Amino acid sequence: MADVLKTSSGRVRKKTGYHHGDLRNAIIEAVAKLIAKSHSLDFQLKEVGKMVGTSVPAIYRHFESKQALLVETAIAGYVLQENYRSYALDQAGDMVLSRLLAVGYAYVHFARSHPGYFLLMKSMETEEILSSETYQAQRYKTIRLMDELVTECSSEGYFTDVEKDLVLAALQAAAFGIANLYTADQLRYVAPGLIGQEDVVARLFKISLRAVLSEAGMRAVETVAGDPFQDIPNKPE
Fold it and tell me: Exposure winner among 53, 63, 209, 212, fewest CB in 10 A?
């Protein structure tokens, strides 16, 4: 399964290829690629098998059903997303507003690099995925982190006097919207002049944040750490 790893230079690269015999992870990665290609869960296990060079019975030896496979794919997606987030937070430093933006950068660049996982997790969750305790724990961890960062930003006086839930919703709307510009390939239609400008994500986040930033927050946002993925190729596979 493709992954995000640090190199000796501190850059991020995607781990490619599979360990010999790691069929389970290869199946999961194939599912993500099929979802990215079709923007749908309407695929057959024989398509998955063809992609990884195995049979449907072999898939059933690892996953009891297609739904079980989707659950495990969503869980794997959260692990990947957390890898991006950990890297971004490592680059952000101690300033809480930088750390808040780092989570947003990680969200968008995870979506750009792994659109199949992103679509499954954010737009195509099945009842089985939503009932998975592991998946729910992963989701709660992300929500709790965002809640803590927004609370700390508020205590630093970076936000206007608006309720915390409104700030959280505004941030999620911004992150989800920016990510979908890329996963749905909409940038070429709505803003073709921005294609190829790798600072677009940072600029869009800063514009979106201004709606809830106080004067102190407006000053602070100009000094935050930049997008750690800006100079790294993060193109959908």
Answer: 53
The CA-based dihedral angle spanning residues 208, 211, 212, 213, taken in that order and rounded to the nearest 10 degrees: 90
pLDDT (tens digit, 9 = 90+) per residue, 129-148?
Answer: 999 999 999 999 999 999 99
In this prediction the pTM is 0.87
The Cα–Cα gap between 38 and 160 comes to 42
Instruction: Report how far apart, in Å, the C-alpha atoms of 40 and of each of 43, 128, 130, 183, 228 are.
Output: 8, 16, 17, 13, 31
**Reported confidence tier of residue 101, pLDDT bands at 50, 70, 90:** very high
Q: Are 174 and 204 in contact (CB under 8 A)?
A: yes
Measured CA to CA, the distance from residue 57 to residue 72 in angstroms comes to 18
Task: Give, in order, the Cα–Cα distances in Å from 115 to each of 6, 37, 38, 175, 224.
Answer: 21, 9, 11, 14, 27
Is residue 12 helix, strand or coil? strand
Angle at 1 between CA 187 and CA 182, to 5 degrees: 5
Report the C-alpha gap between 173 and 215 in whole angstroms. Answer: 22
